[in-house]
Task: inverse folding
């Protein structure tokens, strides 16, 4: 095996050797030159040569202006003439086989690389098509260059260098050279200037630079750093191919440019690619996106049974979870132990928790953008995996080669065997789930692309009872991207999202029922990206969401059931927003972004609402009437601006300070009185009796990179206020409640904290260490709401866990073997515990008073896994990999809850742990 | 590979573990008043009990509230006094409440604090149609069935007592003498004729319901209720001979129903992943002198209707009740007893010497194997057939 790898290496070396010999010989085949060049500048001399020979000579006037030529020649070869002219200067020259001559100072330009140096299908093809090593296309030809080669010089914007003055706009895609998938979030930096940009979610970029010669550096995690030499003569399109980092050589890469966290304007933003996600060991070895997001600073959950994210003190319904622009209402499977996203179809995940871009809205705390992969545009490939709980299959490939591709992914479980092993009390439990994804993208032409995403998930379980729970997501979205010109493009999205659940019980025939619930939304969005100049990038657009909720349909099951159907009135609402934002680069060190989003929510008929006098608690006794509204009538309008501001000042290349302020409005809420987000929680639209939530946040961050930008550190501080967050009254009834406003209260909230992150992104050892100190406090002190909680004092929210430390690491021993280790510690979450005990109905019972006044024991867990890849030969049919690990290595019985129940007349306290021991796991994946 | 699977499984068995939580939580000395009972609208007397809340962990189990002055009070200020008849249980005389009026409870405690409940409307309770049962998963599930043609009762509360007859598996003819620690040191025949002691062979046991049982016809098209009350585990001693359950039914108001539901949620349905979090309990009794004081309880007007059924062991074929009792035969000699009989309970003679005296005797491991009064009372209940 070793030998086989050595052979191509050897060939590569011999080619390089042959190449330099070739260059020397070439000189003799050149045209001859005659002339008297007495004391003239090199520039003048070269221009004369160009006239005589018809060769193109390229040089940087600045490099040669101090040199003069004093030479007289007759019928001598061009090469010989140049050699004589540059004698005793530091100037060098090289000639390529298209009669171009490059004059440089100090270094000789390598004009050519041997065939097969870049060992990919596309390049081989290009090689056949182009016998010139420099491709020259002008924008007017409506062709796009594909730049796959490092040391080529590419000319953009026509072959005419006359219009070199002024700024030129270059646009294009950054693509993976192997699969032609777009590379998202790659940074493109123009050497020796402050010009810097990132590719968007389609891998698309726009950059504005002065005409002339530039060197572009392109970087992205998981890809080899790339450099492209360009000559810019005018506006143009320029696609760049990057190679993914399959093989890491044993050399030291010194890079000064991996500083996008310092440079970018965004703060409180985290991106994790699927490769890092898969390295993190999780329970049962199922690569889990949300579990990894939970390890980021400022993100918490109530416990192991929940993948609900609490971002910077927000509740779980305050996150906008977008999977390729489709809103996912319940991102969890299997009682909330797993997230409902198939890792095989995901490219990366991006979490915005602080300065949320103006194009997003509708939730208070965060935006979690989950980007699906694009399928392989060249070959049909697939993966299959098998683990303790699920099996996975994905298939991807081109529909039209190099134009369109698809991915289909499916997962299903066979978890019932696991439940059968549970203690007696869970013996009759059952659970099953599946999810299914289709992602299609198609490039109609250079200016139009389509993206289709369909997602479906379904869960079915009963928790040791005769009651069966079903829930599922159904989503479809279609995006159309249109490029108007180099500085303007638009993305238009239309989609439909659905979340539904139902509960069926048949234990007593006369009471047998089915309770159904669903949320539906139809979306239409039009977003524009206008690259006004190198200093201004403007985004604007509009969003529309039409909500339709069926808040409860209660129906009999079976003939003998006496259940009266109770169909709650459908809720409808229209959420619309207009936004505009401008990213303004004032100087290379200072940039600001300002955005405004004006959102409006209309409650639509037909519906009826109870009327309560103002200033008195909303209780059933206080209902003074009911108003009925007809179809499509605008019943109530809530509206207001949302402000998004952020600024960055870079003190040095590797140190910057950012600050942000933003406000948010939320018109759809979850009503829940359980600690974990339950699949059966009620979603409720704002209505005349339930106000929208309003949140505002100020934040400040310091970003410093160390050790040649290989270590990123940041400290962020935030303070947040929330208004009209809904909490439940004592003894609230939330299901099938026709006057739900009587069972909830509006609370005020405040959250503040410090987040520290140290991240090492490259090298054999990589990972991150995050520490968060934060508090989340709620207050219900308005007696006119009918109830005050904890005497009107601030009380901690369920997910208020002040200290939280997470360590995630991966050590790569060699290309096939790596080890991952996690450790996490957090303060126990607050719970309400009894303050006393009394005897009632033949039993001791507990007395509760102060909400969330006690904390369960602290949480600590470590996980370990070994990832073993099969061999890395590229040209084999199957690639396989194994993951073996242990979740909760220390076996600590981390409590999920502490509770007290009356059993046979006495009060017993219990501590419940979801995973009370080490959980070993094994996973096998195969790629074909 | 097979070994690996077994290994994995053995770990997973521990998944989801629940263990006793014994951390001593320091709770304040509360001492809030707890009022339990109904104002009776039927023939029965009204019984109200008054206790106080105690610390979660405390040496005292129940603090009784003695010496309170309790009256049932009508809207028109008629008073019906209650007298303390047992430890903090206050009982009325026979009342003739007016079904058109509202009534409430008025309490003055020894510390001169005044408590009143909200006025409640007069309610009667439909009779229990039947108490039915069915075999389920090998055990027996018991249901209460009722209906209200007038549809005036939509919310129900039930409690019950279970009584069962059971027998000690072995007969006994001996009496035991014990030392100070309760260990038997000597035996003698109970009766001169060495006959069996039947008084400790047949016993009865009675327990009350400890769970809150409520039901509602609110969401049903007809006011017909079938509600599960309790489940008898397979092979349980309760059905070893004869079992009886006496069910009491009360109609309650919607608010009282919510109150009982909250107690149930707070104290019985907790701990699993999706259970609601506990909340403050709000009843309808208020302290007049200090409105912010917490008072536990909900006073409603109701009538008690009852129904008793019997289930015999014959009706549950294959019930499979068994005890761990066994007997051994021991030679009645010092050496043999020391070797085989230490710690056992002698029961009846197995064989006698021709001239009298026990040659060999039966012995068993537990006193309860020969003496049912360990687990019940030998007093036959009056209603027992």
Result:
């Amino acid at each position: 095996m070793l030998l086989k790898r050595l052979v191509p290496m050897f060939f590569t070396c011999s080619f390089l050797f042959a190449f330099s010999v070739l260059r020397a010989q070439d000189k003799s085949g050149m045209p001859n030159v005659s002339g008297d060049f007495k004391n003239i500048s090199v520039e003048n001399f070269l221009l004369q040569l160009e006239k005589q020979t018809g060769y193109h000579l390229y040089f940087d006037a600045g490099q040669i202006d101090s040199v003069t030529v004093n030479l007289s020649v007759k019928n001598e070869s061009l090469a010989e003439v140049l050699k004589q002219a540059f004698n005793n200067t530091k100037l060098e020259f090289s000639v390529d086989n298209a009669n171009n001559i490059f004059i440089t100072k100090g270094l000789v330009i390598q004009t050519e690389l041997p065939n097969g140096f870049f060992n990919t299908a596309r390049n081989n093809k290009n090689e056949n098509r182009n016998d010139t090593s420099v491709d020259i296309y002008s924008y007017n030809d409506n062709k796009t260059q594909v730049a796959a080669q490092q040391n080529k010089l590419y000319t953009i914007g026509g072959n005419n260098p006359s219009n070199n003055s002024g700024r030129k706009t270059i646009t294009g895609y950054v693509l993976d050279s192997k699969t032609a998938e777009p590379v998202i979030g790659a940074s493109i930096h123009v050497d020796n200037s402050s010009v810097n940009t990132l590719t968007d979610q389609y891998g698309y970029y726009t950059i504005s630079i002065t005409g002339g010669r530039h060197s572009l550096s392109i970087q992205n995690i998981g890809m080899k750093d790339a450099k492209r030499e360009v000559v810019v003569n005018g506006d143009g399109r320029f696609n760049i191919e990057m190679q993914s980092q399959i093989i890491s050589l044993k050399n030291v890469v010194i890079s000064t440019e991996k500083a996008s966290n310092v440079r970018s304007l965004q703060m409180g933003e985290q991106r994790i690619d699927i490769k890092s996600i898969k390295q993190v060991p999780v329970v049962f070895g199922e690569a889990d996106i949300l579990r990894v997001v939970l390890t980021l600073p400022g993100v918490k959950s109530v416990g192991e049974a929940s993948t609900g994210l609490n971002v910077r003190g927000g509740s779980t319904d305050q996150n906008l979870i977008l999977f390729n622009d489709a809103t996912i209402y319940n991102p969890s499977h299997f009682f909330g132990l797993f997230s409902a996203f198939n890792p095989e179809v995901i490219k990366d995940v991006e979490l915005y928790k602080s300065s949320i871009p103006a194009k997003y809205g509708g939730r208070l705390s965060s935006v979690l953008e989950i980007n699906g992969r694009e399928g392989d545009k060249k070959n049909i490939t697939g993966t299959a995996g098998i683990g303790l709980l699920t099996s996975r299959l994905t298939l991807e490939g081109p529909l039209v080669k190099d134009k369109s591709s698809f991915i289909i992914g499916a997962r299903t479980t066979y978890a019932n065997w696991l439940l059968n092993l549970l203690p007696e009390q869970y013996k009759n439990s059952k659970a099953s789930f599946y999810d299914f994804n289709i992602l299609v993208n198609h490039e109609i032409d250079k200016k139009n692309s389509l993206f289709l995403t369909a997602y479906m998930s379904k869960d079915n379980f009963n928790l040791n009872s005769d009651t069966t729970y079903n829930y599922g997501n159904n989503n479809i979205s279609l995006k159309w991207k249109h490029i108007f010109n180099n500085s303007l493009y638009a993305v238009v999205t239309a989609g439909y999202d659905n979340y539904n659940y139902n509960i069926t019980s048949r234990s007593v025939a006369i009471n047998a029922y089915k309770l159904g619930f669903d949320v539906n939304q139809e979306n239409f969005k039009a977003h524009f990206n206008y690259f006004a100049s190198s200093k201004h990038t403007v985004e604007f657009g509009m969003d529309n969401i039409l909500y339709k909720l069926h808040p409860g349909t209660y129906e009999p099951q079976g003939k003998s059931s006496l259940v009266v159907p109770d169909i709650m009135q459908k809720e409808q609402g229209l959420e619309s927003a207009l936004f505009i934002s401008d990213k303004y680069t004032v100087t290379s060190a200072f940039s600001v972004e300002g955005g405004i989003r004006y959102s409006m929510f209309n409650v639509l008929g037909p519906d009826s609402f109870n009327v309560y006098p103002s200033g008195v608690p909303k209780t059933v006794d206080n209902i003074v009437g009911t108003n009925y509204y007809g179809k499509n009538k605008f019943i109530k309008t809530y509206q207001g601006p949302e402000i998004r501001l952020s600024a960055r000042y870079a003190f040095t290349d590797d140190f910057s300070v950012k600050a942000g302020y933003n406000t948010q409005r939320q018109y759809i809420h979850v009503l829940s009185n359980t600690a974990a987000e339950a699949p059966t929680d009620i979603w409720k639209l704002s209505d005349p009796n339930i106000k929208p939530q309003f949140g505002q946040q100020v934040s400040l961050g310091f970003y410093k990179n160390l050790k040649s930008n290989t270590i990123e550190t940041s400290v962020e501080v935030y303070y947040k206020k929330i208004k009209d967050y809904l909490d439940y009254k004592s003894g609230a009834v939330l299901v099938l409640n026709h006057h739900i406003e009587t069972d909830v209260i509006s609370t005020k909230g405040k959250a503040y904290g410090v987040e520290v992150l140290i991240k090492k992104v490259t090298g054999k050892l990589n990972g991150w260490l995050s520490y968060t100190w934060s508090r989340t406090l709620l207050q219900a002190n308005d007696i006119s709401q009918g109830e005050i909680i904890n005497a009107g004092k601030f009380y901690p929210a369920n997910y208020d866990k002040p200290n939280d430390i997470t360590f995630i690491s991966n050590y790569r021993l060699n290309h096939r073997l790596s080890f991952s280790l996690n450790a996490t510690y957090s303060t126990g979450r607050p719970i309400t515990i009894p303050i006393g005990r009394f005897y009632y109905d033949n039993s001791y019972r507990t007395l509760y008073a102060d909400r969330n006044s006690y904390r369960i024991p602290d949480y600590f867990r470590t996980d370990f896994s070994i990832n073993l890849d099969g061999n890395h030969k590229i040209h084999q049919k199957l690639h396989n990999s194994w993951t073996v690990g242990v979740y909760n290595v220390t076996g600590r019985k981390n409590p999920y809850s502490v509770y007290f129940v009356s059993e046979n007349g006495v009060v017993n306290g219990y501590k419940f742990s979801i995973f009370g021991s080490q959980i070993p796991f094994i996973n096998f994946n195969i790629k074909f | 590979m097979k070994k690996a699977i077994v290994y994995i499984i053995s770990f997973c068995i521990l998944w989801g573990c629940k263990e006793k939580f014994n951390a001593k939580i320091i709770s304040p000395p509360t001492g809030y008043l707890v009022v339990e009972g109904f104002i009776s609208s039927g023939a029965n007397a009204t019984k109200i009990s008054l206790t106080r809340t105690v610390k979660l962990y405390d040496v005292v189990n129940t603090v009784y509230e003695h010496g309170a002055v309790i009256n049932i009070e009508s809207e028109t200020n008629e008073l019906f006094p209650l007298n303390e008849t047992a430890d903090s249980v206050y009982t009325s005389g026979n009342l003739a409440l007016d079904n058109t009026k509202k009534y409430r409870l008025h309490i003055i405690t020894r510390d001169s604090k005044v408590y009143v409940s909200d006025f409640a409307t007069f309610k009667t309770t439909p009779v229990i149609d039947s108490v039915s049962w069915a075999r389920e998963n090998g055990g027996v599930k018991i249901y209460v069935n009722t209906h209200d043609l007038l549809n005036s009762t939509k919310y129900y509360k039930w409690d019950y007592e279970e009584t069962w007859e059971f027998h000690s598996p072995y007969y006994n003819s001996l009496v035991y003498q014990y030392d100070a620690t309760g260990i038997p040191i000597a035996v003698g025949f109970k009766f001169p004729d060495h006959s069996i002691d039947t008084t400790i062979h047949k016993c009865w046991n009675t327990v009350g319901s400890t769970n809150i049982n409520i039901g509602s016809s609110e969401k049903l098209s007809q006011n017909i209720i079938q509600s599960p009350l309790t489940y008898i585990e397979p092979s349980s001693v309760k059905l070893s001979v004869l079992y009886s359950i006496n069910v009491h039914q009360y109609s309650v108001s919607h608010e009282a129903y919510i109150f009982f539901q909250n107690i149930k949620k707070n104290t019985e349905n907790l701990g699993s992943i999706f259970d609601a979090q506990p909340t403050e309990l709000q009843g309808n009794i208020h302290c007049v002198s200090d409105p912010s004081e917490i008072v536990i309880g909900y006073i409603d007007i109701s009538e008690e209707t009852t129904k008793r059924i019997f289930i015999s062991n014959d009706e549950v074929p294959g019930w499979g009740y068994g005890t761990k009792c066994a007997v051994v035969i021991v030679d009645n000699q010092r050496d043999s007893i020391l070797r085989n009989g230490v710690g056992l309970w002698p029961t009846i003679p197995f064989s006698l010497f021709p001239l009298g005296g026990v040659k060999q005797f039966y012995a068993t491991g537990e006193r309860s194997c020969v003496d049912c009064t360990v687990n019940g009372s030998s007093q036959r209940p009056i209603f027992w057939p």
About this structure: Residues 83 and 92 of chain A are 8 Å apart (CA to CA). Confidence is low (pLDDT under 50) at residues 1-28, 119-142, 247-259 of chain A. The longest strand of chain A covers residues 536-556.
